[in-house]
Amino acid sequence: MSALRSLLLLLLSLCPGPGPGLGSEAKVTRSCIETRQVLGARGYSLSLLPPALISGEHLRICPQEYTCCSSEIEQRLTWDTEATFRGLVEENGSFLVHTLASRHRKFDEIFREMLLSSEHSLALLFHRSFGHLYSQHAPVFSGLFSRLRDYYERSGEGLDDALVDFWAQLLERLFPLLHPQYIFSPDYLFCLTRLASSADDSLKPFGDIPRRLYLQITRALVAARAFIQGLETGRDVVSEALKVPMSEGCKRAVMRLTGCPLCRGVPSLPPCRGFCFNVANGCLRNQGLDPDWEAYLDALLLLAEKLQGSFSFELAARSIGLKISEALMYLQDNSVAVSAQVFQQCGNPERILARTRRAPPPQEEVGRFWTPPAAAGAAAAAAPAGAGAGAGAGAEEERPTTTASTSMNRLVWELRERLGRARGFWAGLPTTVCGDPRMAADISQEAAPCWTGAGRGRYLSPVVGISPTEQLDNPEMEKEDSGSDLQTRRRRLQLRAATTRMKVAALGRDLELEDWDEDASGSGEGQHYADDWMAGAAAVAPPARLPRPPRRDVSGGRGGGVLVRHNQGRSRTGGTSVGFHTQPILILFLSALALLGPR
């Protein structure tokens, strides 16, 4: 009998014990020391953590085997792992939000600075040179800048209405100067402006210059406004996408990925990379914005290059003064023909019988209000020393040097560089998240054992993509409703709308205008824009006719009526506005105002 007992003991000693199967890493010691150390450092109460493994039948997410977690600890870990995952997503996308937000703010400041500084410099110079005389006629130009600001700030009417009103006011002021021996009633001036803006273009007092100016300024302002709107939309969409609430299925999957190793007593065992990819792809499937994101970046960078080149805000600003001066020269050179046509269509105005100043000789019945540059230079040379102060000031400020254009070029360059790194951001976000050591094992340790969701081993499930079709086969995600998908579609539609608006703006058009001007964009690439404002350049083909003449009240008096326009006299509480570089306008207006003084 003793021999039989010895044989049995020998056989028992040779029998293999339990292998390193599932859960064996915890059964070796049945200890939770490592888990208690990790969670204690995170602020968990040690009184809630068992010193050794306990039965896991109470667990709802982690495997119901031996565990170091009570129900309360499992719930708290679920919240913590959710916060960690969300923090990683927002942290990796924060550079995008910051880039779009800061560029939106900087570009907006530059555009507003251009408009504001330009208008202020014009007003300062003219007040210093002409005092009350300028104040009488300043609303013609300040009104134009106000309308441009209204358009840029998305609160005003279209640029076509703003410009047609400006040319109508200018014509009303200048035409009586050509005929100081006549009285022009409000009705007569209304006939004049209606004739000048008629559909058949029967009267072109300024030639094709208003149309060319409309083309140039429209391209620049439309591009600037669409660009600012595009940056704003991108900022808001990205910020929303990074903060989408996690679904219950995603929360459970993230807990299984990074929280359950703690409950199993193996917090140092990293999650498998394939496991992390499936969880991240499932959780981020409704946050990605591809392929609309790439199209949005293309349109944004294209428009930025346009603003830096052919649709330059600075070029458009300079063209305003030059085109207006050309228009004055055209009206003066063709004043006889223009006046004859106006008198034929609107009738003969009433002649002044009793004059307080000397009437011009008959041969000078058509007056002059503009002095060509050569003649102006000769007159300045012959004038007394004290008489040229205003002209000298205008000459000094003709070609301003500001930091706005330099800042613009630098901002465009920085934007191009930063957004170039943002390509593929949404497609690569799961990889970026799983690159964090808290989320998955390092790629260099991919062959080593890792946490599979059930224990130590290798993750054998296939890694699925992020597309909705592929996600149907995701082994780590549950079937869920598509409520969050509706929000994703909404964000993508916002990106598509901004992309379309910017692409149309790159063709020189405003998507929000009710009537598109087929000739406004020409061939669409603005290839003649940069040269059009330069002296001696060929004229750009004008767009279709400008809109209706402005409304007016029929109250007025000698020498001209008063137009009543849509925005005149209303208070403007918008932000600070930016103005054009208007120094070229100064030369024009100095000469024009000289005529408006006492004869």
UniProtKB/TrEMBL annotation:
Main location: membrane
GO BP: regulation of signal transduction
Region called Disordered, residue ranges: 380-407, 468-488, 542-577
Taxonomy, superkingdom: Eukaryota
Listed Pfam families: Glypican
Cellular component, GO, one term: plasma membrane
Protein name from the UniProt record: Glypican 2
Species: Canis lupus familiaris
Annotated gene: GPC2
